Amino acid sequence: MFARAAASVAVTITLATIVLATIVLATITLATIDGAAAQTANQPPDTMAARVEACTPCHGNKGEGTSDVYFPRLAGKPAGYLYNQLLAFRSGRRKYPPMNYLLEFLPDPYLEAMAEYFAGEHPPLPQPAPSEVSKDVLAQGELLATSGDASRNIPACVSCHGPGLAGMQPGIPGLLGLRANYISAQLGAWRYGTRTAKSPDCMQQVAGHLTEADVTAVAAWLATRPAPTNPAPVPKGTYALPFGCGSQPN
Amino acid sequence: MGSKLSTALISIKLLALAALTTAAQAQDKSNDIIARGEYLARAGDCTACHTAPEGRLFAGGRAMPTPFGTLYTSNITPDLDTGIGKWSADDFYKTMHSGRFPDGGLIYPAMPFASYTKVTRADSDAIFAYLRSIAPVSQKNKPHELRFPYDNRQLILGWRTLFFSEGEFKPDPKKSAEWNRGAYLVEGLGHCGMCHSPINALGGTSQSDAFKGGLIPMQNWYAPSLTSNREAGLGDWSIKDITDLLQTGVSMRGVVYGPMAEVVHNSLQYLNDEDTKAMAVYLKGIAEPSPPPPASSTLPTTESSLLISLGKTVYDKHCASCHGTQGEGKPPHWPPLANNQSIEMQSAVNPIRMVLNGGYPPGTKGNPMPYGMPPFAGLLSDNEIAAVVSYIRTAWGNRGTPVSAREANELRSAPLN
Question: How do the pLDDT tens digits run along chain A, 250 residues long?
């Protein structure tokens, strides 16, 4: 490229004609275009999918999750929920060193774009795995998830996460497509205060009323739920929350 | 009479106008100093330590784990009771310059006063003016948690005798103004030597070892030598590649991760083009042209060749799609591994960590949506990690040495942040 341009420049100086100058310009322009094309070809795809490859060994190519039961599905969750989690991992409020490390120096708009990317992916929900717990335990889980236990101040999961358990925009996640181990680990973290969110921290209040047996039962039942026909989170304000929640401001 | 009065009135008006103009000029000047101080505080990366995660700007309280215990950074907002609101510009300069509090108390050398001592009085005053201008935060400093005997501050006297020489930066008249500006930033505010110089068992660095590289205590990242072209010496880098790396975090030659990502994120990306170029000129200038020969591997030859052969299989399966079959990468975003100093260095800590944990370069103005390297800790065994790192360290003309599965395993438990 340089040899071509240099040779053309030398010719231009010798003859100094407008015609040749035009040819030189054309050569240089062509060379520039060649260079730009080569550079684009030699660049990674300018897509979010290529940018979030660092997420895929644990969360799957489209955020569908992997065989590791402790790594959650991200796909299709409300973007606001995912963004809140990314912010919480970046600041260290939500503690998981491999995530804290990856996100530490990424700016807000980029985290938002990541959240939107995974919120917009819709790989099919996995087939529910057969449960390892007894029918009684599953029945207890179903009762808590769908009706709660007013005597112990436990609201039903569906009262916030929606009748279809698909969540609500922008901040309330769906609970389907997650494995029992992940759900129970998260509920445990809320109970012990190692996972927290913006005040009023609604999930911590709820989890604080749960016993270990409740956690096992709810997690097991949720993991057995089949995929609904429409797994998309419902729009903001579709139903009123039973109490205030910092992650879902009115 | 009337005319005298009007003249007097005009004079008063003029005086008032003059006073207003002077006040406005003074205000402009003070705004200039504050803006300059903010810029210099960025260059000094004060925020990295003096702002806690989710904490208020410069209110301190960030835990700094050290081999001697945990230190907590101090509140440097202008709060009268808990910050530096009662300090004068003199106090601030003396603290930066001598490593002692205004009352004479000794400061732990986690505060890089051995570098800040080189900062000029004018720059110190500007930083102080900026710190005075931010919102005061009432937040008491948390007491340090150092183990015996390190909780005795008098020990710092010994450290100072060995490792601290007080004094502002002295330009080298034989070098260009640009080189000297770069040296001032690198050696002074930038405090690059805090990581890029070997730290001995006493937590100090001798002057002769400056910028020769070392393992960062507690973090277990290797901060490569800035003087050896076998490590991060920039002798054969173009100035543009150096300034790209410093300003955006990515370059055609390599990408920053780990603690250096923090430095680019908090500090270097905010430096102007002139200062960045000055740093590049200086850094290129201190690199030594003739590198010492590499140390030979401690692994038996047969084990090495088995590892490298497995490594190629792992590489072709997991790495080649981004880094290329010949390690050429797609720079700057997918860094080249062939002829990449950070892969070939004697210490294999950084390449092993990158394979285990992946990483994102910092999001910067020049590269707001960086591409990330996936973590392979969950996908590859210790043996496979060692194999692929051995392969990339020796393939395509790279002159590194193979690493063992034990080294890979040990770094699985290295702290991540």
Answer: 344 444 444 444 444 444 444 444 444 444 444 444 445 668 999 999 999 999 999 999 999 998 888 999 999 999 999 999 999 999 999 999 999 999 999 999 999 999 999 999 999 988 888 888 999 999 999 999 999 999 999 999 999 999 999 999 999 999 999 999 999 999 999 999 999 999 999 999 999 999 999 999 999 999 999 988 888 999 999 999 998 999 998 7
Closest partner residue to A91 (CB to CB) among B53, B330, B368 is: B53
Domain B27-136, CATH class in plain words: mainly alpha
Q: Is B334 in contact with A44 (Cβ distance < 8 A)?
A: yes
Give the residue extent of every domain in chain B.
27-136, 301-412
DSSP secondary structure code for residue A151 in this structure = G
Q: Cis bond leading into B292, ω under 30°?
A: no
Given the cut 0.95, state whether the ipTM is greater than it.
no
In this chain, the answer to whether the domains covering B27-136 and B301-412 adopt an identical fold is: yes
Contact A51 B322 (CB under 8 A): no
Whose tokens are 């436990």? That residue is A154
- With a CB cutoff of 8 Å and minimum separation 6, the contacts of B103 are none
CB atoms near residue B147 (< 10 Å): 10
Nearest residue, CB atoms, A44 vs list B265, B330, B363: B330
What are the C-alpha distances in Å from B226 to residues B176, B350, B396? 20, 15, 24
Class of domain B301-412: mainly alpha
